[in-house]
Amino acid sequence: MRTLILASTSSARRALMDGLGLPYRAESPGVEEDVSPTLSAREAVQVLAGRKAKAVHARHPEAWVLGADQLVEVQGEVLSKPPDREAAKRQLGKLLGQTHDICTGVCLLGPGGHIAEAVEVSRLTFYPVRDEELERYLDLGEWQGCAGSYRVEGAGQALLARLEGDRTNVQGLPMLTVVRMLRDAGFPFFERPEPLKP
Ligand SMILES: Nc1nc2c(ncn2[C@H]2C[C@H](O)[C@@H](COP(=O)(O)OP(=O)(O)OP(=O)(O)O)O2)c(=O)[nH]1
Q1: Is residue 130 scored above 90 in pLDDT?
Q2: Taking the model in full, what pTM does it have?
Q3: What percent helix, strand, coil does the chain show, rounded to 5?
Q4: Architecture in CATH of 4-184
Q5: Where are the domains of the chain?
Q6: H-helix or E-strand containing 80?
Q7: Which of 34, 81, 153 to mutate to test the pocket of ligand 1 (most atoms within 8 A of CB)?
Q8: Reported ipTM exceeds the 0.90 cut
Q9: Residue 115: which H helix or E strand, with range?
């Protein structure tokens, strides 16, 4: 039985992997997420996804390891997870009434030097909303732990006027791409659980 490790502390990513039904476990990558400011969002998420996967794979070289990283890009500015409510208000102020890209880098490492990498971009357009509505959304706390300060599968979908691309990519893992990577690596799906030994 293959060992698959999700190199992530993200509950959103775990929820997406849980839905897939493949046996896996999660482990914190424990890496610094600083990158050169000269990198674009697409370049940065690829570098960071690889860094996270490599850190966990170095601890478990016989396992398969999936790492991911996500950033928002709006009018040339790159946004990550807001540290507090005020930062989340500033982020959403940049996104409301605008179109932005959310970029997720993924990296699958396996035994024997297997590596697969991809960057998936979804394009979202938000409604312009009044300040009092923005304050009410911020009060829900969906901004916490989310690049861009919104949850597309939560109340945040009320901000969403248009979405182009993989919706799961917005939540943290581009599942169409993740499934392709896992199939290309020969992962079996829908396996029956091994019978309990008497
Ligand atoms: N549930 C949900 N989460 C979102 C949404 N948009 C962004 N996120 C989350 C997914 C990721 O946990 C986070 C992006 O930040 P990172 O890529 O740095 O990952 P994070 O530090 O959370 O975990 P990791 O680095 O994988 O341990 O934002 C959304 O619409 N819904």
Answers
A1: yes
A2: 0.94
A3: 35, 25, 40
A4: Alpha-Beta Complex (3.90)
A5: 4-184
A6: none
A7: 81
A8: yes
A9: strand 114-126
